[in-house]
Amino acid sequence: MRELIDKLYKNHNLEKEEFIYLIENFDKDTSEYLFSLAQTTSQEHFQKEVYIRGLIEFTNYCKNDCYYCGIRRGNKNVSRYRLSKEEILSCCQNGYELGFRTFVLQGGEDPAFTDEIMIDIIKAMREGYPDCAITLSIGEKSYDQYQAYYEAGANRFLLRHETANEEHYKKLHPESLSLENRKECLRNLKEIGYQVGTGFMVGSPYQTPECLAEDLAFIKELSPQMVGIGPFIPHKETPFKDFPAGSMDLTLFLIGMLRLMLPNALIPATTALGTIDPKGREKGILSGSNVLMPNLSPIGVRKKYELYDNKICTGEEAAECNVCLRNRVASIGYNVVEKRGDFVEI
Ligand code: 5AD
Ligand code: FES
């Protein structure tokens, strides 16, 4: 096991069979060894700095029907909302004052946000916050649409591939979505010049170690600037309601592997990780993550953007998130910084 991890540390890649072997056989010792190398790698590139991204969940309408997702079209028990441009800008203002220098506009695939409206919002954010990065997380669009948002001032784009295995992709999504188109979108985004983030859920229904090995190989090949992974968590109003949540230990192990594969990548400790374990985000950082993505959405809508059950930071306590997060990061000897935290080539 250690030999394989040393090889990953040295070559930043492994054969598929070797990935599978690690995923199937890792234990506590192996994990600790991996995490120590992952932390060394993170600190080489980022010292002990943790970047924060302010997440603005601006619409929970979605035209898609992914089987895992709580805001899927088929869920009639969600109270749907859209934020206005003014509400979005006020989230930015609030975030800016709290030290955020990256804003992430995330939403379902909502046709009401036409290109014209999106471009107007992006331009207003670009003008109001010239020193901030604007990240979009709004799903699959055409090359020209991505290009237009880029020209309006967006810099980064998050689009998880969800799974790199064709068969598995079909088990997670209805026929209207295809892995081929997903990959095409990711290639287009890179070509246009976005810093691109992809990723997948750990422990999604029907996932096998082979699927995960394919995810890692796909990520290595795409070579994205950001990778977000988090455990699958069932949502009670979806077809996957009775499936178990993904494993935290496996999620942490994969974060460690990703850090060795992509030493300078931006890797968040996700909210889903913080949801399955109260210390999940801290453990993520100690496994190789260097980004946190707290919520800047108005408190009144946070419960409505539930992709999975029991999402943290959606209740009364949410007003304290900023302080809470800084304390959490400080408790493990790292510190939150007020920087854009762009990807830096090595
Ligand atoms: N559990 C965990 N993550 C989920 N996502 C969507 N639904 C769930 C769920 N039930 C993730 C997907 C998506 C991202 C925004 O949230 O990977 O890309
Ligand atoms: Fe939201 Fe801790 S980060 S309460």
UniProtKB/TrEMBL annotation:
User: Entry's Gene3D superfamilies?
Assistant: Aldolase class I
- Residues that coordinate or bind [4Fe-4S] cluster: 62, 66, 69
What does the note accompanying the cofactor annotation read?
Answer: Binds 1 [4Fe-4S] cluster. The cluster is coordinated with 3 cysteines and an exchangeable S-adenosyl-L-methionine.
Residues at which S-adenosyl-L-methionine binds: 162, 182
Pfam families according to UniProt = Radical_SAM
GO terms for MF: 4 iron, 4 sulfur cluster binding; metal ion binding; transferase activity
In this chain, (3R)-3-methyl-D-ornithine is annotated as bound at 137
Instruction: Write out the coiled-coil annotation as residue ranges.
Output: none
Keyword annotations for this protein, in alphabetical order, are: 4Fe-4S, Iron, Iron-sulfur, Metal-binding, S-adenosyl-L-methionine
The cross-references to SUPFAM superfamilies, in alphabetical order and at most eight, read: Radical SAM enzymes (SSF102114)
Annotated Radical SAM core domain residues: 48-273
* GO biological processes: sulfur compound biosynthetic process; water-soluble vitamin biosynthetic process
Q: Provide the cofactor list for this protein.
A: [2Fe-2S] cluster; [4Fe-4S] cluster
Q: What is this protein called?
A: Biotin synthase
Its organism's taxonomic lineage begins at: Bacteria, Bacillati, Bacillota, Clostridia, Lachnospirales
